[in-house]
Structures are given as structure tokens and as C-alpha cells.
Design brief:
homodimer, alpha/beta
Chain lengths: ~190, ~190
Amino acid sequence: MEQLEQKIRQFATMAPGGIVRVDSFLNHQIDTAFVQLLAKEFARRFSGLGVNKIITVEASGIAVAALTGLEMGGIPAVFAKKAFSANLGSDAYYSTTIHSFTKGIDCDLIINKKYIGPQDKVIIIDDFLATGEAILGLMRILREAKAEVKGVGAVIEKTFQGGGDRLRERGILVESLARLAMENGNIAFVGNPK
Amino acid sequence: MEQLEQKIRQFATMAPGGIVRVDSFLNHQIDTAFVQLLAKEFARRFSGLGVNKIITVEASGIAVAALTGLEMGGIPAVFAKKAFSANLGSDAYYSTTIHSFTKGIDCDLIINKKYIGPQDKVIIIDDFLATGEAILGLMRILREAKAEVKGVGAVIEKTFQGGGDRLRERGILVESLARLAMENGNIAFVGNPK
């Protein structure tokens, strides 16, 4: 997506460990008008698949997931929580453990069983697709819930961390709005694989 | 807001400790079309104040804050983070410690100094206003950043936990879309104070 590549060229910064920082517009300060453009693009790419729900992970996936749900006709967006709180009550939950490479810790993803089930045709939306840990964790939950995964949408895919390929090898439709490669320590953009 | 009161009557459940669970439409599963209505109402109530930025806290404030930013002309929404991660890099941050009553722990609120400053006229938007801990924490950060707080918007104010009054006593404009009182263990709705 050309506008996103421009935005990344202009505002992204690199941090050690292959970290691409886009907190000026995507995952700390949210450029709401720009994220709406991203959501419209996801809605366009995932149209016609009968999607009735968006799934994401707190916190940085929420804005783009909610706006994508709105652009796809006002369908709900469910975000997996990373910790139990009293707000979750005594209901039954799906949970799975993933490793966060940016935080260096394991954490749980938790979704209330009420909000996902066999009637759901979902897309998973997130800000980043890196190793794919979070998305594969969500997919384990969705499989247990017998929901159908129609695709995965990432704002930014870091191709050098392999998660996109892991998903595509499983036959998952992956739509990344920008795909980054690392060439001599610099960011380069690559197209979506056919 | 009548539509919100109806939604709460229909879908909210009570948990011990005065907890009002609205995770079916607001803070776990997000009813995106409905949250857009809430955002339009905040935009209406805070119009004409010159607001150029929305501030909230991860995670459950993000959807309504982002949509409110969009409804107010596409202004940015900044969410305070609760933990440092490698994504935050080596920039300078504002931080303050608050107590989370629903989680029973202290946590930090963290905002990159780049994204808030004396040029900002902000409203703070959150899903709940209970004791006011999170919002008072954000206000400490905003004062340090010399940003101007034009108001506080809560989707649901729990009047029996006192946070709304603490803010109003300080002269803060507080707009709550639903104000809940507890009467004999049941939820009752009360109007906004004049």
C-alpha cells in the first residue's frame, strides 16, 4: 500500500533487534484518519469472504481492528486479553501461551468463550506480523472454538522474521499492507507473494 | 445517553465488588457500530473547545478513543502504555504510578514525551470512570507536559466509586454517557450533574 510505505519511510525508526518503531502513527499515538485508510484497505482486500468478526490482540491491534470492523459493515471486533482481571468474571475462557519477542516474556492470550464459536468466519488483524507467535496463538484458540479463519491482515509484515511464510505454508490467506525486508541494516519494501 | 442505557440494561452483568461487565459490546468484544455512536456523542459534547488530541489508557479505552478522534476531524489519539517494551526504544517518557482496583495491582502509565506537549488541548476518553485513578494519573502526566485538559469523557461512570466527583471538584468538565448508581445491589441510572 503506497500511502503506508510513504508513511513508514517518513516516520518509522529502527531499533536494535529488527524492531521497527511506528509509534508516531500506529501503536502509541494513533493517526486516526490514516488508520481509517488502512481499515478501508483491509475491508477491500477481505471483501466477499463472508467475514462476520474481527479478532485481534490487545493493545496495539485494537484501533485498526475496530476500524476494520466498522468498514466491513459494523461487524464486531474481539480483542484477546493478555491477563485475567476481575472484569472477566467467572465465565469460561479459551487461553493459550505465546512468547513475546519484543517484551522478552511469555504471556497468555485469553478470549471469553461467549465471543467466538463455530458460527464465526473471522479475519485476524494486527499491527505487526513478525514471528507470527501472536497470530498462531489466536489460531489455536480459533481452532478450539471451531471458528473459521478466512485470513490474516497485518499492517506491517517483517518478512525477515518469518511469520508470514509460516502462515502461508499452512494455506492461510495473508494480506500485509506493507512488507519489509532488511537489506544491509536498512528497510526495503517488497511486494506481496503471489 | 438513552441508547447506551438500553444497551447496559440489556447486556451488562454485575460482578462482585461493584464491577459492571460490559465485555459483550465495549471492552472485550467491541460492537464497532455502537462504539461509533458513542464516539459521535463525545464529539458532539466536546465540540467547539479546540481539542486537537485524545488521550486514553490501553487497552479498553483505545477503540472509543480512536473513533472519537476520527469523529472530531481525524485528530490523533494517544494511548498511555502500562509497561515498557522494546518497541518504546530509548526516547524520553512521562510516567506515573496508579492503582488498578479491578486488577488489584499498581501499574505505570507511560507516554512518550514526543506525543504530548504545551501545544495540546486534549480530552481524556476512557471506557469507565470509577475511582478516577487512571484519569488522575493521566492528568498528572498532562500537567507535567503542560498540555491543557479540556475535559474528561467516560462511557460509563460508576458514581458510587467517587471518581467523577473528585474530578468535578477540581473544575474539570466531565461528560459521562451513562452514570450508574447502586441501589440495593441493582444498577440505577442517574443524570449528569449540572
